[in-house]
């Protein structure tokens, strides 16, 4: 599969000649991609870029070519001054370990006034500073967006209706957006037939740009549901919590279940639970250097999703074609990570992803539309946490550090 994604990217490079974009009448085509390789010093687990990936660098393979690699294409159509549309398809490692392309964006835009527009269809999940171009590695300073903030959410887009307005207030350019709809994402591994669904999504964001500075706030709430054969099935933990009796092999009979607790089952199983996500972001970029700071919070009903706060700060300096940068990231749980019921305790222990990291990297824009990035991360998992890791093996120890080394080639065409 790693060879497949490398071939796809190579064909994209050769076939396009790296032209910035192509236009035919009302249509404009553009593309982007990343070819990356990552190595992890943690050999008892796999590092993954997002929760939809089943494996990555570390235990499964020494060098991982698929975790941060991707290929995407976008078509922008402008029909007239009122109507336009955009369709974006992306190929990246998914829950089933394939690179099957999917639609990340597909919506119609209607300009009601010069400052007010409506979008209908599939829109980006706009929770972050870089939501509109998160998948375009060439447009971001890092090898990958800091996982403390960007890894937790498996949703890429929202299907629904959005309202966007832009208005100047003196020297400040204000932009607001409200979105309502639903979304879903398949989760790894494929064998568990797991899916996360977000219904009744309502979100609002406001950004203010003044000179070289941009400040953004975001709020979202939804009714979240996780369906999984492993956790919901007859042998899953919630079935144990909901059963008043259990089989006792030594006697071959059914006995009272000491773990039976319907209240805890209803509380921790995620079925139409209220989930809240909030973020605050700041970007200052006068040209010669830049500073990006973002902090997020996940809360809502108490369930198997632990409430957390997370954030990062990135500082970069530009020296011609070279841009060295450094990032500090953190993620802390703000809800209890243990429970007196051993079944619930086992459930929430797997959901603790608190960690901290320090990263240093450099970007080299060595050719038009091509950028080479090298990044090294030192990551420390909190005690009792698996952090950004999956495929945990026997002998894995929480509360320890590991190193990531990544080389990435970003391109646009």
CATH fold naming: Porin
SS summary, helix count = 6
Structural class by secondary-structure content: mainly beta
Note the overall shape. Answer: globular
Strand content: over 45%
What is the highest CATH level, the class? Mainly Beta
Q: Radius of gyration in whole Å, from Cα?
A: 23 Å
**Distance between the amino and carboxyl termini:** 24 Å
Order of helices and strands: HEEEEEEEEEHEEEEHHEEHEEEEHEEEE
What CATH architecture label applies?
Beta Barrel
- Considering the protein shown, what is the CATH homologous superfamily? Porin
Number of strands: 23
Name the poorly predicted regions: 1-20
User: Total domains, how many?
Assistant: 1
How confident overall, as mean pLDDT? Answer: 93
- Helical proportion? 10-25%
| Side-by-side strand order of the widest sheet | 2-6-7-8-9-10-11-12-13-16-17-18-19-20-21-23
